[in-house]
Amino acid sequence: SSMALIWLLVVVPYLLGVVAGRGTKQPKEDTHFPLALDWAMNWGEWGPQAFCPQGTYAYAFELKVESEAAIDDTSMNGIMLYCRAPQDVGHDGVKPKVGTLEFTVTSTVQKWGDWQGKRECPEGFLTGVMMKSEAKQGILDDTAANDLEMQCNWSDFTINGGGNPWGTWSSYTTCPQGWAICGIETKVAAASAMDDTALNNVIMYCCDAAASLNS
């Protein structure tokens, strides 16, 4: 009968899907997704997406910052991610390996400022981010993005990037358990004859690290 056919074609597959937990995990074809900040400035253009090599994830980062002493202070100019394979990062009280293979990735980086030194997770990978940004200052000096703080290993442990003090922090945005930061895209203002701001916004990307972490 038609009712039996409906039961066979619709109801049974639906029940099997519920039992199997369909819809509770990221689809396999979704290899990465963006973490967008809820507070940042908007001058400039988005640069290229840059990703860690497959099988590696970001465990450390570094900021390029123009110091507070500058007259036209651009503050943050760039963000670099350091990528490693799971076996080479810190775990279970063991520090990250020294002298092992790692990769660096950046999106757009402006010309001002100095790199502030690598900040690394003592264990695991970078899994969350928040950024400090200063609102438009009118006739005063605009700086836009000033500092970055990142979460390690889905925990309460965070690392500060050593930027400048102005502005307000965004909320934290984090990868779900088993996913780690693996890529970056920055919005950077071009050099102008007036008030430069350089880096304004960042999108980090999460990749599914569960298979690598369990292998």
Automatic annotation (TrEMBL):
Q: Which UniProt keywords apply?
A: Signal
Gene3D superfamilies documented for this protein: Vitelline membrane outer layer protein I (VOMI) (2.100.10.20)
Species, as recorded: Cherax quadricarinatus (Australian red claw crayfish)
Keyword field contains Heme: no
Q: Which SUPFAM superfamilies match?
A: Vitelline membrane outer protein-I (VMO-I)
Its protein name is Vitelline membrane outer layer protein 1
Query: Which Pfam families does the UniProt record give?
Result: VOMI
Look up the record and report any one GO term of the cellular component aspect: extracellular space
Cleaved signal peptide residues: 1-21
